[in-house]
C-alpha cells in the first residue's frame, strides 16, 4: 500500500517564482498571439475592450438602448441580404423554365409593402426596459472553486468555441466574470511570477492584451470591459500539459476588470479580520465600486455572473464586510447601511434587470462559509477536483507559498515605524496565518497550486508588496 517512489521535494519559493515567470512570458509572448492570429472572434474582443469611468444609475438603460439600435441595424442588413437572395432565386427559376419540375413561386412583397402589412403589434416599438421592482432577484450560488471553473459550468455544451451555428438568431450572452485586477498595471505581477487571481486569469485566457496601458491607473469607480475572452487552459499549473484545453473544450467569457480598495481603515467590532470592521467611509467606497462593476456587467447584457471574495486576503478587507456589501448591492431590497446598533440608514438598491444567476467562486472554504452566512445560509457547493500530477502528491505547494509570504511580510512589518500602518499589516499577516492553519488542516492532496490565491488575492504584485510601498507616512 502507499507510494512506491519517494515524493520529490519542492524547489525554494524564489526559484519556483522564477519558473512561473518564465512560463507566463512564454504564454504572453508566444501562445496568446498565436491564438489571436487564428481566432477572429477573440481578436475582435481584444480590440474592442473599453474603459468605463464612473457609470451612473442611467448607464444600464443607455447601454440597453444602444444594443437595441445595433440589433435593428443588423436586422436591416439581414433583410437586404434576404431580398437579394430572393431575386437571385427568381432569376434562376426563369432560366430553368421548362427543364423538369418547377418550384412553386412565392411572391415576396417589397420592403415598404411588408411594413404596411404588419400587424399593429409588429408596428409597435419595443418598450424600453424599466427597473421593475417585481423582478425576481438573481439566484445566488457559492462554490468552492476558482473563477474559470465556475464560469465553465455556466457555458451550455453547445456554446463552446468550436461550435458553429448558421442560425440568424441572437447569440446567447457569454458568462461574465470579475477580474479582481491590480489598479496599477495590466496583469498585475504576471510576468514576475505572482499567483493572485488576475495572474491566474491572464495566463489562461486572452484577457491580458485587452488591458491597454492607457487605461491605467484604473479609476476608483469604473472598470475595463472585454467581450469574447477565450479560455484556453484549465486551473492546472502552467507546467502541466494536461491543463491545455482542446479546441472543442475552449469557451468564451466576458470580463469586467476593476481594482478593489487596499488596506482600509479598520475599526474595532465583532467578527471580521481579527475583530476589525470597515468604517462607514470605506463601506461606502466599496459599495460604490461594486455598483460600478454591476452596472458595467448588466449594461453589457450579462445574465450569468461570476464574482468572488473581492479584496479579501492580502488587501486586508474583512470577509464579512465584503460579503455583506455584495449582498447589499445585489439583492433588490432596502438594506441597512449602519448596522452596529446605532441608527440604521435605509439605502435604495438597484434592480439588475436580466441578471439571472450570480456565482461566487471562492477557493477558501472558510471564506465561502462566511459568505454563505452573509447571504442567509446559502448552501456552499464543492466543485469537482482535478487530479494533480503523480510527482506532486503529498506536497502542498500552497502551504509553502503561504509560509514564504508570511515570512516576507513579517520582515516588512519590522521595518515599518508608522503605528497605524503596522496595525493594518498585522491584520493582513494574521489573515495569512489563518489561511495557513486552514490549509494545514485540509487533506494533503490539494488540487491546485494557486488555490488560496483565488480566494481574493493572496499574492500581491511586486508594485504592491515592496517595502517602499509601506512608507512611514502610511
UniProtKB/TrEMBL annotation:
Coiled coil: none annotated. Residues 62-93, 436-453 have a biased composition (Basic and acidic residues). Residues 117-138 have a biased composition (Low complexity). Residues 120-233 form the Microbial-type PARG catalytic domain. Residues 94-104, 157-169 have a biased composition (Basic residues). It holds the Pfam family PARG_cat_microb. It comes from the Eukaryota. Residues 1-22, 36-139, 156-176, 436-474 are annotated as: Disordered. This is Microbial-type PARG catalytic domain-containing protein.
Amino acid at each position: 500500500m502507499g507510494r512506491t517512489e519517494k515524493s520529490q521535494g519542492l524547489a525554494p519559493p524564489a526559484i519556483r517564482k522564477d519558473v512561473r515567470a518564465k512560463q507566463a512570458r512564454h504564454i504572453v509572448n508566444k501562445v496568446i498571439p498565436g491564438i489571436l492570429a487564428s481566432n477572429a472572434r477573440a481578436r475582435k474582443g481584444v480590440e474592442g475592450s473599453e474603459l468605463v469611468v464612473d457609470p451612473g444609475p442611467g448607464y444600464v438603460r443607455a447601454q440597453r438602448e444602444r444594443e437595441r439600435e445595433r440589433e435593428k441595424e443588423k436586422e436591416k442588413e439581414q433583410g437586404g441580404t434576404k431580398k437579394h437572395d430572393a431575386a437571385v432565386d427568381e432569376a434562376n427559376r426563369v432560366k430553368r423554365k421548362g427543364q423538369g419540375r418547377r418550384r412553386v413561386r412565392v411572391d415576396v412583397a417589397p420592403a415598404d409593402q411588408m411594413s404596411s402589412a404588419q400587424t399593429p403589434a409588429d408596428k409597435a416599438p419595443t418598450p424600453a426596459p424599466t427597473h421593475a421592482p417585481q423582478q425576481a432577484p438573481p439566484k445566488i450560488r457559492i462554490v468552492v472553486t476558482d473563477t474559470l471553473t465556475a464560469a465553465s459550468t455556466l457555458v451550455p455544451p453547445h456554446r463552446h468555441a468550436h461550435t458553429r451555428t448558421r442560425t440568424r438568431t441572437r447569440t446567447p450572452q457569454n458568462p461574465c466574470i470579475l477580474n479582481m485586477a491590480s489598479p496599477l498595471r495590466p496583469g498585475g505581477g504576471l510576468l514576475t511570477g505572482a499567483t493572485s487571481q488576475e495572474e491566474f486569469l491572464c495566463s489562461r485566457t486572452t484577457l491580458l492584451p485587452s488591458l491597454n496601458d492607457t487605461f491605467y491607473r484604473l479609476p476608483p469607480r469604473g472598470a475595463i470591459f472585454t467581450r469574447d475572452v477565450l479560455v484556453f487552459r484549465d486551473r492546472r499549473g502552467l507546467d502541466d500539459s494536461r491543463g491545455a484545453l482542446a479546441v472543442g473544450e475552449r469557451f468564451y467569457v466576458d470580463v469586467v476588470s476593476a481594482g478593489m480598495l487596499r488596506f482600509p481603515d479598520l475599526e474595532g467590532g465583532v467578527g471580521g479580520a481579527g475583530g476589525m470592521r470597515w468604517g462607514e467611509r470605506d463601506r461606502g467606497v466599496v459599495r460604490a465600486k461594486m455598483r460600478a462593476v454591476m452596472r458595467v456587467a448588466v449594461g453589457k447584457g450579462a445574465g450569468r455572473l461570476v464574482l468572488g471574495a473581492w479584496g479579501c486576503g492580502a488587501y486586508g478587507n474583512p470577509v464579512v464586510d465584503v460579503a455583506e456589501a455584495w449582498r447589499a448591492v445585489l439583492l433588490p431590497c432596502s438594506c441597512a447601511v449602519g448596522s452596529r446598533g446605532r441608527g440604521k440608514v435605509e439605502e435604495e438598491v438597484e434592480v439588475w434587470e436580466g441578471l439571472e444567476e450570480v456565482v461566487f467562486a471562492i477557493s477558501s472554504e472558510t471564506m465561502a462559509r462566511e459568505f454563505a452566512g452573509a447571504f442567509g445560509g446559502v448552501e456552499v457547493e464543492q466543485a469537482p477536483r482535478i487530479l494533480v500530477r503523480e510527482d506532486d502528491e503529498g506536497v502542498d505547494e500552497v502551504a509553502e507559498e503561504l509560509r514564504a509570504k508570511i515570512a516576507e511580510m513579517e520582515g516588512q512589518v519590522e521595518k515599518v515605524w508608522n503605528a497605524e500602518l503596522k496595525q493594518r499589516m498585522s491584520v493582513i499577516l494574521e489573515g495569512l496565518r489563518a489561511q495557513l492553519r486552514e490549509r494545514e488542516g485540509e487533506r494533503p492532496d490539494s488540487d491546485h497550486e494557486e488555490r488560496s490565491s483565488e480566494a481574493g488575492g493572496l499574492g500581491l504584485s511586486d508594485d504592491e508588496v515592496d517595502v517602499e510601498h509601506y512608507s512611514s507616512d502610511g
